[in-house]
């Protein structure tokens, strides 16, 4: 089992997912959300206490080097399956959970065996390698905040969904989209909670509800360790970014609530967050997730 004080390889994470399903056969099952260029599965877990419930979807690790993202997601899986906390048990029970810790498996493996700060997938384009999988979704594709140069870390690919990872995962999501109440995308870093859209500062249809729910969730996040997150539209809170997952989920699948977490920290370690911070980062995010769902219910 995981100790939450070190980062794990893809192989370790996938074995751990299998172990969790073996230990919780009535509620947990393995799901395959898609595949990668190098032929790996995008492996995840479904947690369900009975058919026909509304769903929460968690996509993490789309950027390979952001190791705190899968680590936090694994912690959430563990809490949903093993916690004795009444509120955690309640959210675990009330929803069907679809959770993918590593949605860029080739990139994640490369950060362990090749280059620690790799971000993109591993597809060769000319002399360069890799598409930014968070610029390749079919929403304002190749708009602001991305690049058509394959050397760039924000290379959008040769077309919307040119990459097998985004193409297969988006199909999986599309096929269950009418059940999703809440979609979360985990990244690092900067301590932000972001809402669509990345190409404009114009408010969303449900901007005020999304902001209110997000701010209250970040209030809950701050209680345990005092960690401050800023809630805002992608374009106003950081920079323009197009072809991102949450924009596509919102624009094309009409999921009401979608958020991108930019996890710890705020510029000291960045993507190289020390493993001692895995547990506190994960705990406070879990606190925020409980509050987010309670607030979404109140307003929804
Ligand atoms: O640039 C990005 O893709 C994200 N920042 S990061 O430093 N993790 O690369 C911000 C994108 C915000 N939008 C979505 N996540 N959809
Ligand atoms: Zn990222």
UniProtKB/TrEMBL annotation:
<comment type="function">
    <text>Involved in the digestion of the blood meal.</text>
</comment>
<feature type="active site" description="Proton donor/acceptor">
    <location>
        <position position="262"/>
    </location>
</feature>
<dbReference type="GO" id="GO:0004181">
    <property type="term" value="F:metallocarboxypeptidase activity"/>
</dbReference>
<keyword id="KW-0482">Metalloprotease</keyword>
<keyword id="KW-1015">Disulfide bond</keyword>
<keyword id="KW-0378">Hydrolase</keyword>
<keyword id="KW-0862">Zinc</keyword>
<dbReference type="GO" id="GO:0008270">
    <property type="term" value="F:zinc ion binding"/>
</dbReference>
<dbReference type="GO" id="GO:0005615">
    <property type="term" value="C:extracellular space"/>
</dbReference>
<feature type="domain" description="Peptidase M14">
    <location>
        <begin position="6"/>
        <end position="296"/>
    </location>
</feature>
<keyword id="KW-0645">Protease</keyword>
<keyword id="KW-0479">Metal-binding</keyword>
<keyword id="KW-0964">Secreted</keyword>
<keyword id="KW-0732">Signal</keyword>
<keyword id="KW-0121">Carboxypeptidase</keyword>
<protein>
    <recommendedName>
        <fullName>Peptidase M14 domain-containing protein</fullName>
    </recommendedName>
</protein>
<comment type="similarity">
    <text>Belongs to the peptidase M14 family.</text>
</comment>
<dbReference type="GO" id="GO:0006508">
    <property type="term" value="P:proteolysis"/>
</dbReference>
